[in-house]
Amino acid sequence: MPSRLGRYAVRRRIGSGGFATVWLAYDEQLDSPVAVKVLADNWTEDAAVRQRFLEEGRFLRKVESPYVVTVYDAGELDDGRPYLVMSYADQGTLADRLEVEGLTPAQAMEVVRQVGAGLQALHERGVLHRDVKPANVLFRTVEDAEEGTVRAMVADLGLGKALDMSSRLTMIAGTPSFVAPEQAQGEPLDPRADQYSLAALAYLLLAGRAPYAHASLAAAAAPSSPPPLSSPERPFPAEVEAVVRRGLAADRAERWPDVASFVAALEDALAPVVVDDAASSWLPVDPDLTQPGARPSARPSHDSLPAPVPPRRGRARLLAGGLVGVLAVAVGLGVGFWVEQRGEGDETVGDDTGTLFVTVPDDWARAVAADGWTAPLDGGEFPALSVGTTADWTDVRSSAQGVFVGILPGTELPAQMPRHPECDTAQEPVDSSFEDRDSRTVLYTGCPGGVTVERVVQLAANRLLWVQIRSADSATANTVLDAVDTRGI
Questions:
Q1: Same domain, 226 and 118
Q2: For residues 78 and 165, what is the distance between their CA atoms, to the nearest angstrom?
Q3: pTM of the model
Q4: Apex CA 22: angle with CA 191 and CA 114, to 5°?
């Protein structure tokens, strides 16, 4: 842990993902906690990634809204890494809240209203968010008699694009269960893509479940109608259902004209439901969520620094594997991975929990994500590891090479393996058993850049191990596939 980032004294790491690490720090001149987002050191020399990182700060700086995270400062460390200094969300994320309990209809409406206001502010300044989801809605404590004590803010514009750029070139990315179909298909975007994501978020908050459980962007590209919003446990008027379904229309022309129109319509439809609940619409301060703590000294003592965790050595060989679709959306780019040189031309990379390991050609280990993922369907956090020649190796159009390994819950192998329409041929699934562990493997050929391999293994009674490999040739893919190891399971 660094003691300082620029002029800011560091308290602790908040988290990492999307090419960067975020630290809780103090602005000692203004006596205020701040969040400092630092580009990961392995991306410092990548001009495109560096530009994308700086663009996030510029996009956020354009917007003066209480519902969008504020950028206060920007700078560059001695090693050349840029950083952004932003408002600190001391009350965590919407994802944090949903892990503990659901929201009342009045609270859900208030969150949607505030997030919608943040998105509308971005759109009015020509910026798309493109990744609206619970983890990107932050809460901070405010002193505002009219707006309660906790305010929602839109954060993380790592996928954000200026509207003039999005109309010409759109990178296929986003979170499958919340992404608009046209975004998953790589079409030019407009603000109605963010409206779709907000409608999906509203559905989740009201129904207590997401409208879709897409495991990949390929699934999100061809959506079906979501199940009814209402349930016996959470009944809603038909007007509420109609508003949300219009926001989730597969054809963007059928959606609301803009985010503000969607929010206003939902507020009117929910009025009969929340009329007796308006007083409790504001989220309470949660003392168990992240708090800034005491003001740090400029030079923290050695005892206050976390002890280093030694890498776990030893290997338990396992023929393992395969994950679905585009996986970069599920795994944050962390910097806590473990790498061991395994001989000329090879490196073994481990995730930051010491659970997953894979040996790859050393030129693959340029983009490593090792801090876990949110498993599809279940939504829980599990160990995961992504290693590739570029950060976008999972893009269906990319010819880059890489491997993803992830653990997720499951009591049996899936009946259907992921599909890869970008490839020419899918071979028949091969079922096998190794060390009493059943597995299923599919090889796809004629893919951009070579071949793709998907494998799933019944790792334990209630755990599956998925592997996806993209390689220039089958020989390299098989070598990497055989070099996937697990520990502790």
A1: yes
A2: 32
A3: 0.58
A4: 35
Phi, psi at 338, each rounded to 5°: -110, 135
171 in the same domain as 237 = yes
Burial 87-121 (b: 16+ CB within 10 A, else e): bbbbbbbbbbbbeeeebbbbbbbbbbbbbbbbbbb
| C-alpha separations of 345 from 92, 342, 366 in Å | 42, 8, 13
- Active site amino acids: 131
How many independent structural domains does the chain possess? 3
> Residues 26-56: pLDDT tens digits?
998 888 899 999 988 777 777 777 777 787 7
Q: Are residues 237 and 139 part of one domain?
A: yes
Instruction: Judge whether 404 and 383 are in contact, CB under 8 Å.
Output: no
Structural contact between residues 41 and 81, judged by C-beta atoms closer than 8 angstroms: yes
pLDDT in tens, 138-174: 998 887 645 557 889 998 754 444 333 333 333 344 5
Q: Is 330 inside any structural domain?
A: no
Range of the domain at 433: 338-486
More confident residue, 330 or 485: 485
Task: Answer with the one of 45, 61, 86 that is the final residue of a domain.
Answer: 86
Q: Which of 60, 86, 112 is the last residue of a domain?
A: 86
Average pLDDT of span 405-434:
78
- Check residues 209 and 303 and name the one with the higher pLDDT: 209
Are β-strands 338-343 and 346-350 bridged in parallel, bridged antiparallel, or unpaired? antiparallel
> Which pLDDT belongs to residue 271?
92
Q: Round to whole Å and give the CA distance between 440 and 412.
A: 11
Which tokens in the block code for residue 79?
A: 């090693």
